[in-house]
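Feature request, filed as a ticket because there's no other form

It would be nice if the structure record came with a short human-readable summary line next to the tokens. Right now we just get the raw output. Example of a typical job, pasted below so the devs can see what we mean:
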Amino acid sequence: GQGLPFAVAVAVQEQLTSANMAFALCMMLSQGAIEALAAHASPELQERYLSKLVTGEWTGTMNLTEPTAGSDVGALKSRAEPNPDGSYRVKGTKIYITWGEHDAAENIVHLVLARLPDAPAGVKGISLFIVPKHKIDESGAITGPNDVTCASLEHKMGIHGSPTAVLVFGEKGGAWGELVGEPNRGLEYMFAMMNHARLNVGLQGLSIAERAYQQARDFARQRIQGRPLGWTQAAEGAIVHHPDVRRMLLSMKSRIEAMRGLLYEVAAASDIAHHSADPAAQAYYQRKVDVLTPIAKGWCTETGVDIASLGMQVHGGMGYIEETGAAQHLRDARITTIYEGTTGIQANDLVGRKLIRDKGAAMTELLASIDATVVSLQVSTPELAALGQALAAANADAKSATAALLICSNDPRMPFASAVPYLNQMGILTGANVLARGALAAHTHAQAGDADGYYGSKLALAQFYASHVLPQAAGYAHSVRDGSPAVFGLAEAHL
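Raw output as currently delivered:
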């Protein structure tokens, strides 16, 4: 509701999510509902619902998943029947509905996917409906309860502060609802909410990683255990001085900075794509958003889980004890790789829709922008030139892996067998690119002085990432180029 650019709002939301990921999910889903209604609802529906959603008086949810229709949204069975007054009676059961039932707001605006009686089969027959927890009149005033029942709240591994509901619509004849936009275009409309949510779930991976890192760093500074190698002081030193603890902390911090740079870059590109006065710029930055979104969602959440796990490792045995809180970060982070499209779904989107569909045009643009970073590094200091060489080698691997996926195959399964390794490769590479650009900027600013060592720290993090994280991309490249047939080498009976 602040009218901020998305790039600024993302920075604010990162802090809210680090503070309490479970609670921040409420705002995230409401933001997605606002996006969907602002893009596709009629002016009358916008007038009734948006003002209350923007102020936070009401909250929003997204209702896709059903007991027999998870990632296969086209299999959903919820139905909507028209009423004479133009409203609809919605019937069906939805599961895993984040913040689907609570008393923290006056009303909950459920966006529900359902089928009309004459709808075609599959995803082409899905419509989008607003089904509020409490009915409202034409002025937006609440008139009474709707036929929406919370059958249960899920018992989850983590995010216990977020009520995840099983919702039953229409137990007493039909939940009152209103159609958004045109019939049978519901999945298209919901993608406005889903794309917004995908980037924000990637942000959750970053946010929980940052909190896990800060806790691990502070513990390492305080925990006295053994004499670090090379330690010359009389008293024992904190474990932050042990080489492997330093390695773990730098692995966490460098990847966090890479994730943050990548996510903020996507948010800034989205701002330009939506608000630039230049149609060519709009198109270019929208292609950039499209190709980077599945990478940002998939790689940042997978990395967030790994960093939360590494945070426990820094704590040692105390990380496995609940009183430190380190284990909670891992439990909370684990869902991020699953909801709003699993890592495999993000990778399939990257390879199928964002790579093969346009024959690699958008990816070629992205890799060309990394080449430009390499050129800038090569004409700078020896340290930055060495960073440029590592980035150039990784980009060459990305080009060869991309070419391998684009080669026609008699077996259409092959590109998708390597889709997740390709997504991870591209995440590591794009993360290296933003760190390298940050190192370039830090070098420029350091010329005016670096009394507190801030700019030097940016170069040190980029160098660590290039030495310890970026080489992993070469392994993923090998899997992409040569590993697909091995995925089908073991008979199902032996799995």
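Something like this underneath would help us a lot:
The chain has 15 helices and ten strands.
The chain has a mean pLDDT of 94.
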